[in-house]
């Protein structure tokens, strides 16, 4: 028999059920001594290493946590997951990452099919809990079919949705926790700072228009300008997506549209860096001729020329908060300490 022996193979070789093998693995005292010895002999003979799922068939606990993201190359997801995994490992839990890679997929049916399949795989594989960081939950209009899939997941295991204060279409449940990531305060911090520098011709670039994050940041940008009697037209708002290329394309759009500006607000650092590259490649403008700020700091900003004035959302504290909430929920304990402070802060760079 090959080395990839399964619990089903062990059950067949020992002439017992799969659940009996699982009980033996978990040292269930209700298993008869003769059966215990018979199954153990087969396990040892074939050097079977039981998976967490096999162990959890009886105990109903696998110590496995599923985490869903839509693009692990996004620095926000990457940093959050790295910190979370470290905390969970220290607490005795294993993190399994499900990267849907749907962030750049425009086919709505394809995105729905992929993310629904992921949730169903998590349900089938006996995870203890799920943390959802991105994907369809980031949409302004979440498909009804996906909401139903999430309801099924939440009914079966603790689920933390990170980044949103709530999703009104989902029913309240003891299994459902929201960990909000405010988008209004960071944007206000940045735009108010840039206004104090006496800039008055603003452009907003980046962000997918179907995402609630884009909606919050763009609307806050407009509201702050209007509160300060600075006019803003939709012609000066260019939503496309969250990546380097989108910043570059925004630079092309601004140049081709011949827009006058002295300040640019980017959805995040990657879009801001892409914009700088586009301006450098396509114009004779000097970076000192306009201000550039970003609504979300990424660590790679430290290597940008110029370094970009940006807002740190304190992802380390956010991830540690998720870990604390999850561990307390799984171990049926109250939080021993208050959650970390996740207040955003403005990081001054060289771009404004």
UniProtKB/TrEMBL annotation:
PROSITE patterns recorded: HTH_LACI_1, HTH_LACI_2
CDD domains to which the protein is assigned, alphabetical: HTH_LacI, PBP1_LacI_sugar_binding-like
Sequence ranges assigned to domain HTH lacI-type in this UniProt record: 5-59
Keyword annotations: DNA-binding, Transcription, Transcription regulation
Source superkingdom: Bacteria
InterPro entries per record: HTH_LacI, LacI/GalR-like_sensor, Lambda_DNA-bd_dom_sf, Peripla_BP_I
GO molecular function: DNA-binding transcription factor activity; transcription cis-regulatory region binding
Protein name: Catabolite control protein A
Protein's organism: Latilactobacillus sakei (Lactobacillus sakei)
The gene coding this protein: ccpA_2
